[in-house]
Write a structure and sequence with these properties.
This protein is of the alpha/beta class and 533 residues long. It has 14 helices and 15 strands.
Amino acid sequence: MWNDEFSDAQRCALDWLNERQAAFSKDHKTIWDFQEPSWREYRSSRWYVERLRSEGFTVEEGTAGMPTAFRAEWRNGDGPVLAGYAEYDAVPGQSQEAVPYQQPRKGTSRLAAGHTDPHSALGIGALAGFLATKRAMEAHSIPGTLVFFGEPAEKMCGSKPVHAAHGYYDGLDAAISFHPHSFPALTNGCFWETTSAPYWSRIYTFECPDPETWQADISSGEITHIHAIARAPGAIDAVCLMYTNSKMMKESILPHTGSWTINEFIPIAGQATADNFAPGIGQIQYSMRAPSLDMCHSAFEILDRNADSIAAMTHCTVKKEWITKTRPGLPNHVMAETTFANFKRLGAPQWGEDAVRFAQDVHKTLGLPETTEPLLPNMMKLTSPQEAEAAFREQLPPWQKHYAADDYVDYTWHAPTVRLYVARPTLHHPEAPGYRYPAWARHAMAGYTACIDPMWSRASQVITTTLLDLLTKPAVLEAAQAEFRERTGGGVGGSRWIAPLLPKDFRAPVDYHWPEYVETPRGSEWSMGNVRD
């Protein structure tokens, strides 16, 4: 059944995965059903912790001050220390049932969270690959250590820079990062030279602690009641001014090149009061993707200056706190070649009739004509790292070596790391090239077993065969580490190495007003509010 080039240990791992396909499929649906957003993945992380402990891993919970993060380790004697991870955060406003029409998850608001990339499948694919590797190591007496991290809040690039700053990636020999595909020219393959870009995010908290001192030198007669005096502008005005002024200045922040972006989120606006009191607190978060660290630094210098000026205008104080700061990705050709070689032996994932029917039903819902080919053909093809690199280079300026963003990049500066992409189910209509599908259609397919299982199950196979190569072929691991040392100018601490950008004592940003589910006497609710339909 398996390619003759696979070792006995690799075939053992692959057989083990096949035998447990249905069980892992149920596991994926469990995480998908939790649909918990960034920093609030309580049930999801608890599920992983309990599962890993039941599989013989030693698990540290709440790593680096993050309640929904963990580090799991299983050791089988002296040998390489190999790492991977699960992500499990969902995205607010994307609740969708696994049906071929738009419908929020049962019992949830349409504003609630849902899995988009989907991280539910990312995590299960990685977990299955590591557990299969453990099985083969036991059966074939292969020494080494497996380290499996729980990485919350990837949508904010949240946990990995914190883990890195707190030293959790120290001592790793290699790491594997897996993600469902997100680029048409890289459906099944690995990054080569162009990798993910830095992502920086900062929250600005405006407060109006002394509203009574606003215009205090202007006489208001003998009546000093709050209704008879000028009210301080306060924190809502500060947030509004920060939003509008920074938005108007956006095109002047950086040159119009490099596909950089800045996005905003307002967690708090004025303590929900419409009374005559000056709004006491407001917050606005800015998140930036940019090809270089210098570009990130320049943009936040301007945002910081805006915040200072606006605080003075609105009679507020301002506090500036980092949410995250990631480094640019560091490629590793040896890791990419080793991983893709296994992918070639396994072949691209394939989708069956049930998945095709589901995709056809989505097309019917959208009013598109019937087609026998409702899925993107590239989903079932491999793309070599070199081919993918050429496609990237066609759309990027020559100087730009980093694109989009993901916090896996922080692994790359502590050990040779591969970025593996496996195709997720993607809609396509031959008669409607360029048609833009609504987000709910992608999300629905991510929860439908026949659509999503081929993706994560193939990823688990690529992961385990690659881990076993690294464990049993010292020359491969040494070559990957030699390349890492060359690219960093000597390894960790080398002349070209970039240290974590957050301080060693960085406090994880878990206590802000992030969207979440809450329990009240009214039952379970989405904390960011509902809309009356």
